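Bench log, entry 3. Co-assembly request; chain sequences pasted below exactly as received.
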Amino acid sequence: MSSRKENIIITALELFANEGYNATSTSKIAKQAEVSEGLIFRHFKNKQGLLNAVIAAADKRLKEVTAPLFELKEPKEIIRFIIEMPFNIDEDKHDFWRMQFTIKWEQNYYKHDKMKPILELLIVAFSQLGYPSPDKEAQLLLNIIEGISTDILRGTLVDSEAFRSFMLNKYEL
Amino acid sequence: MSSRKENIIITALELFANEGYNATSTSKIAKQAEVSEGLIFRHFKNKQGLLNAVIAAADKRLKEVTAPLFELKEPKEIIRFIIEMPFNIDEDKHDFWRMQFTIKWEQNYYKHDKMKPILELLIVAFSQLGYPSPDKEAQLLLNIIEGISTDILRGTLVDSEAFRSFMLNKYEL
DNA sequence: GCAAAAAGTTAGTAATTACTTACTTTTAAG
DNA sequence: CTTAAAAGTAAGTAATTACTAACTTTTTGC
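Structure output for the full assembly:
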C-alpha cells in the first residue's frame, strides 16, 4: 500500500473518531492528509468506500490486540486478560477505539460478529469455573468491559487503578 | 408551547435519534414536521438551538421516568428498580433513549451530571447492604445498565427475560 | 376592535458537500 | 528505453447545507 493511501486512512480514522463520519468532509481529510481530494476517490471510489477501508484497518488492529487472548488456556487467565483490556489501552490508540463507538451509533455498524469469538471463549471459561449461567456471565462481562472502555475513552473514570483491582477482586483474580 | 413548535421538537428527536444530528438537515426536519424551514430558525435561532431544545425535552422526560426511584426507601427496592429500568423501556420511547447514545458520541454531550443523583442513591443503597466498596458497586451497576440498554435498543439482547432474572439473581433480589 | 407582538411563510443567499473529468506524473515490467 | 498502468493533481460540477430577509397571517392584551 502506497504511503499516501495509508496516510488517508490514518487521517480519516482520526477525524471519524473525533468528529464523526458525517461531520468529516472529504476535503478536510484531503487537506489534513496533504493529498488532493481527488485521490480519495481514485483509491476508495466514494466516501463510504473510505469508511469501509478505515473499518477494515481497525478490525485488523483489533484482531492483533486480542490475538494473545486465544493463546491462553487457564480460564482465570482469560477472564483477567479481558478485564484488563480497557485499562491497558495506549493513549495513542484512543482514536482507534473511540471510532468503534462513534461509528457504532452513527452508522448501523454492529460489532456483534467481531466480539463473538471472544464471547464464546468467555462462555467456556466461566463454564470451566463452574459458574451456573456461563453464557449470561460472558455477556455480562462483555457489557461491563464496553462500559469501562467508554468511561476511559471519555476520561470519566476517576480512579482507574482502584476500579481495576475492584473488578479483578469481583472475579476472584 | 405552540403545537408546531412541539411538532418540530418531536420530529427532530426522531430524526436525530435514528440518523444522527449531522446527517439530519433542517429542510428534512421541516418537511417531515410539515412546517416551513424558516420556522425552525424563528423558534430555535439555529440548528444547535434546536438540538438544545430537543435535549432539554429529553432530560425532562428522563426525570419523569426516574422520579419514582427517589421515593423508594428500601435499598433492595432501589437496586431492583434500576436493574429493571432497561427492560421496561416502552417500544414507542426507543427514539428518545436511542438519542441519548447517538448524541453522546456525536456531540460532546456528557450525561455524567444527569446520572449523578442516581449514582449517589445507589452508593447509599449498596452501603446499607454492607457491600465493601459501595461507590465502585454503584458505578459498576450503572455501567451494566447502560450496556443492557444499548443491547435492548439495538435488538441484540437475545433472551431479554432470562437476562433480567439473571441480573436480579446476581444482586440477590 | 385595534395595535403590537408572536407565529408563520416564501424565496432567496453564500458556502460547503460528495464526486467527476480531463489532465499530468510516477512506477514498474518486458 | 519504451510503454502501459497506476498514482496523482487541478478545476470544475450539481446538489445540498444552514441560515436570512422581507413579507403575511394569527394571536393576544387592553
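The radius of gyration of chain B is 18 Å. The interface with chain A takes residues 20, 22-23, 101-102, 104-106, 110, 112, 133, 136, 139-140, 142-144, 146-148, 150-151, 154, 156, 162-163, 166-167, 170 of chain B (CB under 8 Å).
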